[in-house]
Amino acid sequence: MRIAVASDGLDVASYFGAASSFMCYTVTRGIITECQNLPNPHLAIDGLIKLFHEVGVDILIVGRIEYDVANVLCHGGIEVVAGAQGNAADVARAYLSKTLTGVEAVCHLDDPGYTLGEEHTAPSYA
Questions:
Q1: CB of 120 closer than 8 Å to CB of 104
Q2: Per-residue pLDDT at 120 exceeds 50
Q3: Rounded Cα gap, residues 73 and 49, in angstroms
Q4: Label partner for 54 (CA 20 to 30 A): which of 22, 39, 45, 125?
Q5: How is 73-120 classified by DSSP, letter by letter?
Q6: Given the DSSP bridges, would you call strands 21-28 and 31-39 parallel, antiparallel or unpaired?
Q7: Element (H or E) spanning 48, and its range?
C-alpha cells in the first residue's frame, strides 16, 4: 500500500490544488517503510490518477478538496481522505493506526453540498 499526502514542505497542504508536492509513504504490514517526495506535476486529474497508479498510490490524504475532484479520484481507484492537517508523516501514521479524527472518508459521502475539509460536522474516521 502507498499513501500520498498532499503537502507543502513537511505539512499537509491546506488546499489540494495548491499542494507543492505529495509525500508518498510505502506501507508494509502496517508500518511505513519508505518515504518519497513527489513534486506536484500539476497534471489534469486524469493524468494525476494515472501517475498515482504508476507509483502505487492507493490513498490520498488532503486538507481541503473540491467534491467533484475527490469524486473523480475515488472513481479512479484512489481513496480520498479530506480535512487533515499537521505534519504529513504524523497524519499518515495516524491514518494507519485509525486515530486520524475529524477527517472525511470522501469516497463514501453522498452529499456534494460543500467543499470537503471546510469546517462543518464531519463523520469521524474511526
A1: no
A2: no
A3: 7
A4: 125
A5: HHHTT-EEEES--SBHHHHHHHHHHT---S-EEGGG----SS-BTSSS
A6: antiparallel
A7: helix 45-54
